[in-house]
From TrEMBL:
Residues 31-100 form the RNA 2-O ribose methyltransferase substrate binding domain. GO terms for cellular component: cytoplasm. The keyword Transferase applies. One of its GO terms (biological process) is RNA processing. Keywords: Methyltransferase, Transferase. GO terms for molecular function: RNA binding; RNA methyltransferase activity. SUPFAM superfamilies: alpha/beta knot, L30e-like. It comes from Lottiidibacillus patelloidae. This is RNA methyltransferase.
């Protein structure tokens, strides 16, 4: 059993650097923290390079660690590596998943995120897309990093369940059109209340939701089949983008 109790240990310094996007991209690795998320990682096909465990942590018997490297650390080291206020005492160091071979097709259902900058919103929408049975999520390059700790926590493991890919959305809009998959944008101006549109789940759909402040880019909205919005009946100025996305996804999927 490997044990580390020094904050100056090279491995500890390396793991702490993974709190930054720059280091995650440089090493092609990221951290997954907490019993539930580590379990989801273990059940997926993601490569786990090591699992870091607090020396005082009580590991659930349900977790299978037989095929992974384990490193035990002191409470002090765990607190230094953790990105939560109350660490659960377990962190997995994972390799970024290779972009899966994905393709659109008639009947498929996709969520497209245009420059969503809040990691919590990105993670929540990945989770919602998973719950709604979508085929995948496409993120524009301006979105929050999917391997940010807040994003990963918000997905609650859904990051390991469906394809989540960063891509140029315009290219995919052309692909959806070629495959006769309807593309819907979200916009108040020029849009229609979503209840006025007849959904056709058999054809599938691609739904675009946009930046928290400026919405979907106008160049993308100009390429959609129709633009939708969720009506506001009270005095609130707007809905949170992840909540609006959830309403629309469940309506469109039928």
């Amino acid at each position: 059993m490997k044990m580390i109790d020094s904050l100056q240990n090279p491995s500890v310094k390396k793991w702490k650097k993974l709190h930054t996007k720059k280091e995650r991209e440089k090493t092609n690795t990221f951290l997954v923290e907490g019993f539930h998320l580590v379990e989801e990682a273990l059940k997926s096909d993601v490569e786990i390079t090591t699992i870091i465990v607090d020396q005082d942590a009580n590991l659930p018997r349900a977790l299978d660690f037989s095929n992974v490297s384990m490193t035990y650390v002191s409470n002090q080291v765990m607190r230094a590596i953790s990105e939560t206020e109350t660490p659960q005492g377990i962190i997995a160091v994972c390799k970024k998943q290779e972009t899966k071979d994905i393709s659109s097709g008639r009947g498929q259902k996709w969520l497209l995120l245009d420059r969503i900058q809040d990691p919590g919103n990105v993670g929540t929408m990945i989770r919602t897309a998973d719950a709604a049975g979508l085929d995948g999520v496409l993120l524009s390059p301006g979105c929050a990093d999917i391997y940010n700790a807040k994003t990963i926590r918000a997905t609650q493991g859904s990051l390991f369940h469906i394809p989540v890919v960063t891509a140029e959305l315009t290219t995919w809009l052309n692909t959806f059109k070629e495959d006769s998959v309807p593309v819907y944008g979200t916009a108040l101006e020029g849009g229609v209340p979503y209840q006025e549109m007849d959904s056709n789940p058999e054809r599938g759909f691609a739904l675009i939701v946009g930046n928290e402040g400026s919405g979907v880019d106008a160049s993308l909205l100009s390429q959609t089949d129709k633009n939708l919005y969720v009506p506001i009946y009270g005095k609130a100025e707007s809905l949170n983008v992840s909540l609006a996305a959830g309403i629309l996804l469940y309506y469109l999927r039928g």
